[in-house]
Specification:
- The chain is α/β, with parallel strands linked by helices and about 325 residues long.
- The chain has a domain at about 5-220: 3-Layer(aba) Sandwich (Rossmann fold).
- The chain contains 9 helices and 12 strands.
- It has an 8-stranded mixed β-sheet with strand order 6-7-8-3-9-10-12-11, with helices on both faces. A 4-stranded antiparallel β-sheet has the order 2-1-4-5.
- Helix 6 (about 185-205) links the parallel strand 7 (about 175-180) and strand 8 (about 205-210).
Length: about 325
């Protein structure tokens, strides 16, 4: 399987906002993260709010500059490319945003929004050809060509997300970064959008980097899953293996915190507390303050992933 996206030891720190004279040191949002995404594959990144999921997605797209590490698109190192050199390569990777209400320009007609990428990546097309391509993409996403002359406020959330997907597909990318693509939608609409994404992936062989906090959604769409906590990868592996037998205590806690259908299905515990406030890159396992399995050795743990029966886990005391 050829790799269409790779991150190698990528890290990013942000400086906290403070009105004090003595400024706090930068905090790592992502700490030396590595991942590989193969052609036609769906890799899900899961974790609680603040775990670094969306930051990872923006680093992968070069919307944020990494402090260290390498980023490769289709085996091309784009880490230090200038914006001008990177521009023709951006059609390789596109993004579908979380909020369908904020991701479309309210002053642009749908046809203009969806076809905007063609002005950059296919300037040789005539106005009529661009309009035909837009109509084709809208039809692929379950919308009629007549919507091209309307404005975003005239559509529901699910319809706007379909428009956002069409806008991402218009330049024929190989990778779609899906940042919580259904979290702002009703449950019934979520299923429609997920089915649409799966059908498009089957037809076009796209690779998906799927960012989500909803493990029930991830279980149905992903091939592999990468679990993040406080900027660190704590577990990675095949979706079926991790859901059947999670090795890291944090992964188990996330699975236990899922909504239940009946009180008899209630799990043992839920995720509690906040992410550590100190510099997590220098203090051993970042999860040890919450973990019931923690020992003194966890304070000096290097955080390296170790193979356990097909699953990579960063833990001294795995389940």
């Amino acid at each position: 399987m050829s790799m269409v996206l790779e991150l190698r030891e990528v890290g990013k720190r942000f400086k906290p906002r403070s009105f004090m004279r003595r400024q706090p040191p930068p905090r790592p949002a992502v700490a030396s993260l590595s991942l590989q995404l193969g052609e036609g594959e769906t890799l899900a990144i899961v974790g609680e709010s603040g775990s670094g999921k969306s930051t990872t997605a923006r680093l992968a797209m070069r919307l944020l500059e990494a402090d260290h590490g390498r980023i490769l698109w289709n085996d091309v190192d784009v880490t230090e490319m200038s914006p001008r050199a990177l521009r023709p390569l951006r059609r390789h990777i596109q993004m579908v945003f979380q909020d369908p209400y904020a991701s479309l320009n309210p002053r642009m007609r749908i046809g203009e929004s969806v076809g905007e990428g063609l002005r950059v990546h296919a300037p040789e097309l005539s106005r009529r050809q661009r309009r035909d391509r837009v109509a084709e993409m809208l039809d692929l996403c379950g919308l009629d060509a007549s919507v091209m002359d309307r404005y975003p406020h005239q559509f529901s959330g699910g319809q706007r997300q379909r428009i956002g997907i069409a806008r991402s597909l218009i330049v024929e990318p190989k990778v779609l970064v899906l940042d919580e693509p259904v979290s702002a939608l009703d449950v019934s609409v979520q299923a429609q959008i997920l089915n649409l994404l799966q059908q498009i992936q089957q037809d076009r062989g796209l690779a998906y980097l799927f960012i989500s906090h909803d493990l029930s959604v991830v279980q149905h769409v992903a091939d592999r899953v990468l679990v993040m906590f406080a900027g660190h990868v704590v577990e990675e592996g095949d979706i079926e293996a991790i859901f059947a037998h999670p090795r890291h205590p944090y992964t188990k806690a996330l699975l236990d915190a899922r909504p239940i259908l009946h009180p008899a299905e209630r799990r043992d515990r839920q995720v509690e507390g906040e992410a550590p406030a100190e510099d997590i890159a220098a203090t051993g396992c970042p999860y040890r303050q919450r973990c019931e399995r923690a020992s003194d050795a966890c304070a000096s743990f290097d955080g390296a992933l170790r193979e356990m029966e097909g699953i990579s886990v960063a833990c001294l005391h795995p389940r």
